[in-house]
Amino acid sequence: MYCWSSSVSVDDEFEKLVSRMNPPRVTIDNAFDDKTTLIKVDSANKRGSLLDVVQVLTDLNLLIRRAYISSDGGWFMDVFHVTDEFGNKVYDENISEKVQQSLGQRGCGLRTLERSVGVQSAAEHTMIELSGRDRPGLLSEIFAVLADHKCNVVAAEVWTHNSRMASVVYITDEANGLAIDDPDRLNNIKQLLLYVLKGNREWRSANTAVSVGSTQTQRRLHQMMYADRDYDNQNVDSATDERNKPLVTVENCVEKGYTVLNMNSPDRPKLLFDTVCTITDMQYVIFHGTIIAEGPDAQQEYFIRHKDGCPISSEAERQRVINCLGAAIKRRSSEGIKLELCSDDRVGLLSDVTRIFRENGLSVTRAEVTTRGTQAVNIFYVTDASGYPVKSETIEEVRKQIGLTILHVKDDAYSSSPPQQAAGFSLGSIFRSRSEKFLYNLGLIKSCS
Questions:
Q1: pTM, 2 dp
Q2: Contact 323, 222 (CB under 8 A)
Q3: Are 174 and 346 in contact (CB under 8 A)?
């Protein structure tokens, strides 16, 4: 078994010098491909650079149809074939600058999560992190506590997976619309939310802590779920779950000292971000990769090593990686009926809406809460309390109680469908020769056909 030594660290000043001498180069090409925009990124190789780029593209709501990654040694080249969310080419002139900024200004590293309720204040809002055991009505109880304490929820994202829940909630003071900076008031809110998270169970009870640092919301949700071990004891409860279950394989490429990850799953937006984020936060480094997502399925292949330079060395570690990547793919999956609520924003709106959900036996599996000016635009995915599809008459009753003109049923454009036969592909050829096919994939040559 190979175990490659990790490269010798350099001091910060030398790293800054290297960055100044070799600034990131980002090129945008709309002529190379008929259907997609090609984004090519060349930069000095730093751990986490790939995630930085993927995060920017994800935040811009770009769909990554294909990607080719090569980052062995001191330099990396990433090539992405992207479209906008409607499948069109992209002509935003600011993409290049935004990607370069992400590579030039390194963000905070991985924060260790030891607690499950955290509060972080900024000038505009206070951020609350919660994680714990999921149960019907939990979200309603959380929003009720915030409403009772005169907190306005301006944004939130909630994920549930494998009986666990994680959420990041941004609140302001009802009185002045600013962040809540009273320590006693914040502590009281935290303690009440702690009681809600614990419920009647002492098993895996929640704790409280004040968050430090700043991390992109969805990356933070992945970290919270991972820390809460939502990847343990995953069960497949139905034929639909079995059909949508990600196929993840982990094998060692002994002659090259890599571990090879292969993933096949239904495609959806932000899938690449979810897998790259998890691989990075598990302390692995991606050296090469190929992603193809041009149909209902997505295939991903990565050549990785642990950050200490070693490939995966035990069956227990291999199984853990399989479970964690499967969980990362499933966390954002949209289970249930999609409901969209658009109305004037007000304090207590979410408390009232989720209370009506609870009273009608609906359970929220995922939620996205946003505020645009004075308007609240909220997305909920709901099932019944047992996780099964909700009857249409129940949905109509809920709509009548909330308001037929403000709560709408939306078809999920990314609903599950039977996986198609995966197209075969491999990165192994790059180790045999610098083939014309690989150069074509990287956008360095054009097809002669």
A1: 0.82
A2: no
A3: no
Strand order in the sheet with 75-83: 25-29, 37-44, 75-83, 63-70, 284-292, 297-306, 258-266, 247-253
Compute, in degrees rounded to 10, the torsion defined by CA atoms 188, 193, 195, 196.
Answer: 150
**How would you classify the pairing of strands 258-266 and 284-292?**
unpaired
Note the pLDDT tens digit of each residue in 370-386. 998 889 999 999 999 88
Number of alpha helices (DSSP H) and beta strands (DSSP E) in the chain: 13, 16
Helix (H) or strand (E) holding 431, with range, is: helix 429-432
Q: Specify the DSSP element, H or E, that contains 219.
A: helix 217-227
Edge-to-edge strand list for the sheet holding 407-410: 117-121, 126-133, 164-173, 151-161, 362-372, 375-384, 337-344, 407-410
**How much is the pLDDT for 89?**
95
Paired with 165 in beta bridges are: 132, 160
Distance of CA 169 to the CA centre of its chain: 16
- The model's pLDDT over 54-98, given as tens digits with 9 standing for 90+, comes to 999 999 999 999 999 998 777 888 999 999 999 999 998 788 888
| Burial grade of 230 (CB within 10 A; 0-12, 13-18, 19 or more) | buried
Angstrom distance (rounded) from CA 449 to CA 442: 17
- DSSP 8-state class, residue 320: H
CA-to-CA distance for 159 and 331, rounded, in angstroms?
7
Q: What is the DSSP string of 236-299?
A: --SHHHHHH--EEEEEEETTTTEEEEEEEEE--TTHHHHHHHHHHHTTEEEEEEEEE-SSSEEE
